[in-house]
Amino acid sequence: MTGSIKRGVSLYSFQEEMFLGQMTVEDCVAFATSIGANGIEILPEQNMPQFPALTDADVATWREMLARHGAHFTCYDMFLDTKLRKGELLSDDEQVESIRRDLERCNRLGIRNMRVLVFVRPDILERCVPYAEALDVHMGVEVHAPWHLEHAWILRTIEVADRLGTRHLGILPDMGIFMKHYPPEFRARFEREGARPEVAQFIVDQHEQKIMCEYTIYEVAVKMQGNPAEVRMAETLRHAPFANPKRIADYAPYFRHIQAKFYGMTEDCTDPSIAYDEVIPELVRCGWDGTLSSEYEGNRWVQDAGPVDSREQVRRQHVMFERLIAQAREDVRECA
Amino acid sequence: MMFDRYLIDSDSLHNTGPVQAPTGFAFTARLGYYRGLGLSMVEELEVSIDGEPLPRSAVRFDEGKGALTLDEMETCYDRRWGFGAPATISVEHPGGFPAGEHKLSLRQRLRVSYMPFPSFNFDEKTVTLAA
Predict the structure, then answer these.
(1) Closest chain A C-alpha to B10 CA, distance in angstroms
(2) Are residues A60 and A209 in the same domain?
(3) Given this model, what pLDDT does residue A1 score?
(4) pLDDT, mean of residues A119-148
(5) Domains held by chain A: number
(6) Which chain B residues are Cβ-neighbours of A82 within 8 angstroms?
(7) The predicted structure's pLDDT at residue A334
(8) Range of the domain at A226
C-alpha cells in the first residue's frame, strides 16, 4: 500500500526575491503551480504585511488568489514572541493565548497544519490541544537541526500526543536533519571569506565521517589556529546532523507536512547534501501522504557571489522529487 | 548574514534640517530578518560613521507611523517593522553627514524569542553624500 505524496512550496523559498521587491506573493504562487507544486505554505509574519490583523476581506483575497492559480494552503508557520517585553518572558497564559490566535487564523484561512517553532514548551502545547481539536488544526513541532527525530526534547511532544490520544499534536520534520554531506554552498562561501581550501577540506572530511562536531571545532580553532572564517565553518557542524532515515516510518503517524529544506541543487537536479534519495523511499514505503514543501535556504549562502535564482533552485528540487517518488513507487510495486 | 548586505539603502542618504546648517542625516533601512518583528524587540540600531558609533539617544526610527527614539521603541507593542519594508533611520548630528567619502554602518540587535542569544545584523556601505 503506497500513499500519494503531494508537492508544495513554502513562500520562505523566495525570501530573497520578495525581500528585494522582485517577486510578489502572487508571483511565488503562480510559479509554484507552474511546476505542479500546488500546496502553499505561508509565513504570515513574512507574507501578510498587515499581521497580526486579518480581516474577512484579507481572508477572501488570499483564498481567491490561490484559487485563481489552482493552488491551496498547506501550512501556516507560527511564531511566538516569548521575549516581547525586555527582561521578562510572556506568562504561560499569554503564550497559550498567542498560539490560540494563530490557530484561529489558520482555521479562518482554511489551513489544517500549523508549524510550531521547536522551542515552544510541550506543556504549553498540551494546553493548546483543545483549541487545535476544536479548530481542526494539526500542531506540528518543527524538528529542525540540531534537533532530530529522536531528540529527547522532541520525544516530550510525542509523549504528550500519545498520552492525550490526540491527532492534533505531533511533529513537522525539517529535512535539514538529514544532512548526509556538507553543503558545497557553505564551503564555497567560507572559502570566499578566507577559509583555506585545505582546512575547508578537513572540515568536509570530518563531517563526511560523522565525527562528532566538537572534535573538529577544537582541531580547527585550537590545534590548527584556524582563521575566523575557518572557525565559523567548523562551528556550522553543530547544526549539521544526519538522522537515520530508516526511522521515518516510526514517526510518520505524527507528521502530515514536511519542510523540504535545501541549500542548492546541481544542474542535473540532485541534492548534493540532503539525503532525499534515502528519505523519499522511506516515506513512500510507509504510505505517507502529506506534502513535501520546498524550503530553499541557499540564498543567504550565495547572494555575495551573484544574483540568487530561487525559482530555478525550487524547480530543480521538484524535478528530483518527481523522479525519486516515481522510482520509489516502482520499487515498492516490484516488492509487492 | 541573512540579508545583511541589504540593510542600508545608500542612495537614500540625505541631510536633515536647514540646507545651510544641517542638524543631522537620515537614510532608508531594512530589517535583516526573514519575517517582520514588533518594534519592542528591536533592541538596538547602532549607526556608525567610519567605525565610530553615534550616541544611541541621537537615533530615531520611523516605519511610517511617526518617529520614535530607541527607548520609546522598547515599549512599543502595537507597531511592527515589516519583512523587507523600508523604514527611515534619522540621526541628530550637527552639521549633517560629513562631506566626502565615508563608511556608514548599521548594526541591528534583535530579540528573537526562539534564539538563545541576541541576533545581530550588520551592514556597512561606503557613501558620498551629494553636495
Answers:
(1) 15
(2) no
(3) 43
(4) 98
(5) 2
(6) 113
(7) 87
(8) 184-236
CA angle (A47, A50, A56) in 5-degree steps: 100
Out of B36, B41, B84, closest to residue A83 by CB: B41
CB A86 within 8 A of CB A48: no
Please report, rounded to a whole number, the percentage of residues in chain A having pLDDT higher than 90: 98
Amino acid at A181: H
Burial of A5 from C-beta contacts in 10 A (0-12 / 13-18 / 19+): buried
Residue A175 shares a structural domain with residue A188:
no
Final residue in a domain of this structure, among A220, A236, A252:
A236
Give pLDDT, residue A41. 98
**Are residues A301 and A330 both part of a single domain?**
yes
Residue-range domain boundaries for chain B = 4-125
Q: Which stretches of chain A are assigned E, i.e. beta strand?
A: 6-10, 39-42, 72-77, 113-116, 138-143, 169-173, 257-262, 291-296
Facing B35 at nearest CB: one of A21, A79, A303: A79
- Cβ atoms within 10 Å, residue A50: 11
Q: Do A221 and A318 fall within a single domain?
A: no
Residue predicted with more confidence, A239 or A2? A239
* CA nearest to B26, candidates B83, B78, B81, B92: B92
Q: Under an 8 A CB cutoff, do A80 and B113 touch?
A: yes
pTM value is 0.96
Please give the Cα distance from A272 to A246 (Å, whole number). 20
Interface of B with A in 11-70 (CB under 8 A): 30, 34-36, 38, 40-41, 43
Both A189 and A60 in a single domain? no
pLDDT confidence of residue A290: 98
Distance from CA of A137 to the nearest CA of B (A): 22
Q: Given a cut of 70, is residue B98 above it in pLDDT?
A: yes
Flag whether pLDDT at B130 surpasses 80. no
Does pLDDT of A24 surpass 80?
yes
CA distance B70 to chain A (A): 13
Clarify whether residues A165 and A205 are in a common domain.
no
Strands A72-77 and A39-42: parallel
